[in-house]
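Handoff note, outgoing to incoming analyst
You'll be picking up this chain. Sequence as last confirmed:
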Amino acid sequence: MAKHGRRCPTCGNVPAPRAENGAWPFCSDRCRLADLGRWLGESYRIPGERIGDGAAVLSEGDEEDLT
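Most recent structure output, in case you need it:
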């Protein structure tokens, strides 16, 4: 195992040291992009109550209040 003791979060391989690896903490750009794709596809979730994106959610009676 490498001195840093870390493993790639995507595949579990031991990545090259940070100074030699532009994809750190991943072992490769492929693993880095796979992880990014999971975040963008909302496969990963942060636990807790969803705060939202700033847009108000209208209920059925709220439409009349806007006019």
